[in-house]
Write a structure and sequence with these properties.
With 206 residues, this protein is of the alpha+beta class. It has a single domain (2-205), classed as Porin, CATH 2.40.160. Helices cover 15% and strands 58% of the residues. The longest helix has 26 residues, at 2-27. It is elongated and about 60 Å long.
Length: 206
């Protein structure tokens, strides 16, 4: 826990310096700013409960002066993963979703290939069902008593950005996710922690 808080402080210190520089650049434009926005979908290759997994989701953001952006991002587990339900001690399907506030910054955004850094701060839910996402029916949901827990999540990302056109970007990058507050006796507290490899397809006014 102490290592997590120390690493979080380092990341927040680093990102706050980046964002402070961005705000300094923004205020140096005599109040004249350019506004844009973008949105799109992402695929993450990661590990959940020590198993290779796939997350799908996306992000939407307001962009200021082609550099700083503020928005929302969220993801859900696509892979079928099993774990022991602490309520009935049966092996059931694990379902995970999370999302929250997104802060980011582009570096040299006018270059065809450039970098960005972003941090997601939010919350999520983890729950068990006796049926998989792909076998969902309303009847299954009505007859199921969900075992679930909520958690806080932070995820720091850095990406290589490819300017395909003025209105279409592709991002390829790496992120680290940390969850706090998992309260299930059959799962370790680090079940959701780990690295992700991400590809994103974004559309908008950059």
């Amino acid at each position: 826990m102490l290592r997590y808080f120390l690493s979080t402080l380092v990341v927040l210190s680093f990102t706050s310096q980046l964002f402070a520089q961005s705000f300094s650049d923004l205020t140096a434009t005599n109040g004249k700013h350019e506004h844009g926005g973008f949105g799109g979908f992402s695929i993450k290759s990661t590990t959940i409960n020590n198993e290779a997994s796939v997350l799908a989701g996306g992000k939407v953001a307001w962009l200021i002066d082609h550099t700083f952006y503020l928005g929302f991002s969220g993801y859900t587990l696509l892979s079928e993963r099993n774990a022991t339900n602490p309520e009935n001690l049966q092996s059931e399907y694990l379902n995970i979703s999370y999302g929250g506030l997104l802060l980011g910054n582009y570096f040299a955004p006018n270059s065809i290939i450039h970098l960005n850094a972003e941090i997601l701060l939010g919350a999520g839910t983890l729950y068990f069902t006796p049926y998989s996402f792909w076998n969902y029916t309303p009847e299954n949901e009505i007859s199921t008593i969900f075992t679930h827990t909520y958690y806080f999540v932070s995820e720091f990302s850095t990406n290589v950005v490819f300017n395909i056109t003025h209105h279409f970007h592709i991002e390829v990058g790496l992120s680290y996710r940390k969850a706090l507050g998992l309260d299930l006796t059959t799962l370790p507290k680090t079940t959701l922690d780990g690295l992700s490899y991400t590809i994103s397809f974004l559309f908008g006014k950059f």
